[in-house]
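Students often ask why inverse folding is considered easier than folding. One informal answer: many sequences map to the same fold, so there is more than one right answer. In these notes we will look at a single instance of the problem. The structure comes first.
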């Protein structure tokens, strides 16, 4: 009897020791991954006090109206669009009447539209190029690097419509009206503005039906004309909300799905990301900011033109803003600002002392930072 009790106590002690060892091992593993995660999110090259940098200060409410643009910032309000230098001097100003203004940037142009309103206008670094009114509500837009614009409009007797404007502001003939393909969701030009990609979503059936539509844009008798080029359907019921053009291909993304269009060939892109949050092209490479689920840390993957992953690493908790210029991009995450090369190489990594609203490039070695206290520049 006493021997049985001693054996029982010994077994209990053995089990307790095993559990204790397992807890130590699990804690060590967890500590390793936490330290690895922290080391990737800490250790910036330098710490920068933004208020000490060149630029100008303003109140937070005012800072929200500024967008980096060229060698200055665009100030967008309900009743005015103005271009300011980085010292805060106004270069030009135009009166508008927009209830819910939004901006879409090309290489050296910006379209300012009134979301769910009836107007949009185009600007470069010197002046307003044109201003347009519409008979249907504006739902979205894109601007190509050479100045073409495409605007998504509502429609009274269809799902929606797409209008295209030349760099001079003339409308391209044959606007596309979506009668069968569903609501237009997003639009994007290729590099020479000869093809426009459109994603749509049909909600008529029992399941969502996404489509990808291509329009060909060509010049005929000194006038641009848009015509049907191709249409594709997918095998997944996902909202295709983002289109990127890099290299020689369109890349189209849903929340966890991706497709590629090369010429008139359409295929699924093999990606395995639980939640795709942002996508953009840098030179010929694709940058994907993703996470493993809601509330998880953001990661950055860089995929080359042959679909090889050339970079994949932790990025941070909250992505505030990003911007692209040719073969570089700048990403603001938490209170860190990264400048990446097209292959994912970190050119600059700084920590800042304020929350950041927007970022942009000035020249080859300087970034514009719009923070809660104003507009600043930093030479990296």
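Output (designed amino acids):
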């Amino acid at each position: 009897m006493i021997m049985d009790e001693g054996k029982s106590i010994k077994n209990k002690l053995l089990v307790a020791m095993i559990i204790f060892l397992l807890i130590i091992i699990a804690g060590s593993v967890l500590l390793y991954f936490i330290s690895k995660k922290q080391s990737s999110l800490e250790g910036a090259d330098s710490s920068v006090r933004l208020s000490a940098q060149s630029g100008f200060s303003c109140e937070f409410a005012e800072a929200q109206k500024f967008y980096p643009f060229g060698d200055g910032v665009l100030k967008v309000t309900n009743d005015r669009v103005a271009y300011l230098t980085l010292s805060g001097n106004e270069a030009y100003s135009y009166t508008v009447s927009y209830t819910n203004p939004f901006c879409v940037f090309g290489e050296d142009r910006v379209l300012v539209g009134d979301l769910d309103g009836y107007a949009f206008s185009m600007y470069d670094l010197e002046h307003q190029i044109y201003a347009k009114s519409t008979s249907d509500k504006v739902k979205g837009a894109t601007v190509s690097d050479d100045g073409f614009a495409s605007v998504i409009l509502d429609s009274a007797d269809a799902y929606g419509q797409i209008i295209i404007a030349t760099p001079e502001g003339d409308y391209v003939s044959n606007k596309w009206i979506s009668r069968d393909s569903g609501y237009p969701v997003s639009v994007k030009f290729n590099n020479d503005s000869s093809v426009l990609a459109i994603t749509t979503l049909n909600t008529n059936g029992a399941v969502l039906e996404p489509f990808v539509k291509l329009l060909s844009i060509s010049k005929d008798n000194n006038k641009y004309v848009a015509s049907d080029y191709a249409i594709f359907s997918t095998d997944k019921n996902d909202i295709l909300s983002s289109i990127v053009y890099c290299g020689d291909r369109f890349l189209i993304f849903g929340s966890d799905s991706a497709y590629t269009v090369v010429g008139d060939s359409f295929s699924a892109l093999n990606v395995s990301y639980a939640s795709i949050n942002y996508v953009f092209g840098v030179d010929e490479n694709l940058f994907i900011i993703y996470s493993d689920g809601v509330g998880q840390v953001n990661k950055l993957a860089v995929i080359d033109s042959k679909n090889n992953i050339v970079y994949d690493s932790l990025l941070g908790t909250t992505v505030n803003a990003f911007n692209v210029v040719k073969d570089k991009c700048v990403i603001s995450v938490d209170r860190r600002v990264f400048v990446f090369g097209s292959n994912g190489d970190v050119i600059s990594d700084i920590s800042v002392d304020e929350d950041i609203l927007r970022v942009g490039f000035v020249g080859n070695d300087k970034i514009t930072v719009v923070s809660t206290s104003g507009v600043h520049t930093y030479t990296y």
